[in-house]
Amino acid sequence: MAKKIDFMCTAFRDGFQSAYGARVQTADFLPALEAARDAGLNYFEAGGGARFQSLYFYCQEDAFDMMDAFRATVGPDANLQTLSRGVNVVGLESQSSDVIRLHAELFKKHGMTTIRNFDALNDVQNLVYSGRCIVEAGLKHQVVVTMMELPPGCVGAHDADFYAGVLQQILDAEIPYDSVCFKDASGTAVPSKVHETIKRARKVLPADTYIHFHTHETAGVSVQAYMAALEAGADAIDLSLAPCSGGTCQPDVLVMWHALRGSRFELDVDIDKVREAEGVFKDCMKDYFLPPEAVAVEPLIPWSPMPGGALTANTQMLRDNGVMDRYPEMIHAMSDVVRRGGYGTSVTPVSQFYFQQAFNNVMFGAWEKIAEPYGKMVLGYFGKTPVPPDPKVIALASEQLGIEPTSRPPLELNDADPNKGVEPARKLLQQHGLAETDENLFIIATCKDKGLAFLKGEATLGIRKIDKKATGATTVDHPGDFALRIGGKRFDVRVDGQRVTVDGRVYDVDMVDKSDAPEPVPSEDVTEVAAQMPGVVLRILAHPGDQVRAGEPILVLEAMKMEVRVNAPQDGVVRSIGVEVGQQVANGQALATLG
């Protein structure tokens, strides 16, 4: 008799992150969730990871309301699992003890059953306290060893010996757990290594330990990897539903069901009902823009291991910022960033640190500008990397960021930081007259300015849906996009009101009838302060009339989840600020003038 294999349906969390950059509104997918429930599925990934911050950043929704709706839809008995990043919980920034405990208590309060808890550096000290909080809150704890394949030619970590060592550290630390997961977010771990790793884990873990394996189809070997894991003794795998399956996502339930036919394993599902549920799901998502890279295998991923969930999140941001054409360069640059960064697993938040540094290497020149999160990682502020990072990169990071390397545990650093924790969040809520609920405190602690904007009703909608009014095109990234050819040369032009963008350069224009256009007046002797990269205006620090010194920040942009200061190029007086908070700006756009 074939062994029945458990699986978690990831379609409504990792599927959304991997296919749509996590930008999906709750009301749009609930009918598909109902259909999946009616098809007999009862183990779902229901939140956490990028599907926490993204709801506040892009969807104008409360993640806690989403979790409540999820539980109400599937009923009281379903196993609802969320994703947590150890001391980072559900953000890119690591947190203090009180926020980590609040995370577990709130996710229990809002209907979750299990939390899959990982550390991207496989630094076990980052799992000890968070794991304890999860169990003490009454949740099941699925402790994780994170996996990937190193770029070809790299050695020193991420082999079966390394993973066995991490697992032994988890056992020695006596972290309470209910199950163990081996998580390969980039889908790059070769099947033979998956088999050897899980076979060795089965030997050292108690006989009844529940072992779960997670991968993505990004590199094209996910079904082989799942077969290898099952043959080695895994109890469960992760599968998704179309249209959030294959490509950057997990394999489809239908695909895995087919792959297992005639083997000694089988999925315990009514496959016809699953097919019906997928039909409902496709209908629910028909208005969403599905990036072409989300449904494709990427052969270059083994050289530049990018998780499926990070891949489309980043390409969505590149599209927002008008630099999608530079994406191939960034993927190429990422290989060097991974090689020199200490071999942290390419899974959030480390995968984002890798991509941010690759982004900077492309936009500013190789290693000319260290991305702050990447710099802090190589300097030890997120924990110990599997191998020491490149000493030259460490020196650059220390010099540019103005901080020394550290070996202090992140939790200790965060608890000593007066700007982190519940109390600074409480003060911010009081300052803005907002309710001091546990939920609001957690939103501020993990989402910062964007969380505050949401709570104040100032969040902007950032989802991508198909523009059905567009003529001759299926999707439009921005209103008024054109490809203009002059003398055989192509120019990408966007016209948006009184702003025209030509090949990434933004011009503010006055469009009037030709006969009414006044003669141009020579401008005063002023210096423009331009954006060095595309982004969104996060904060304005100086105002017209302010005296500023060279190097002093005038405003702050957010680009690729980084805060980027725009500094005064010289001493002077601020003559004008030409942008507003929340405004999207392009590379080279004038932001302010100095006189």
From TrEMBL:
GO biological process entries: gluconeogenesis
The keyword Ligase belongs to this UniProt entry's keyword annotation: yes
Domain Lipoyl-binding: 516-595
Residues of the Pyruvate carboxyltransferase domain: 5-275
One GO MF term attached to the UniProt entry: pyruvate carboxylase activity
Cross-referenced InterPro entries: Aldolase_TIM, Biotin_BS, Biotin_lipoyl, Carboxylase_cons_dom, PCB-like, PYR_CT, Single_hybrid_motif
Signal peptide annotation: none
Recorded superkingdom: Bacteria
Enzyme Commission number, as recorded: 6.4.1.7
Record keywords: Biotin, Ligase
Recorded GO CC terms: cytoplasm
Enzyme class, UniProt record, top EC level: ligase
Ligase as UniProt keyword: yes
PANTHER family in UniProt: PYRUVATE CARBOXYLASE (PTHR43778), PYRUVATE CARBOXYLASE, MITOCHONDRIAL (PTHR43778:SF2)
Protein name: 2-oxoglutarate carboxylase large subunit
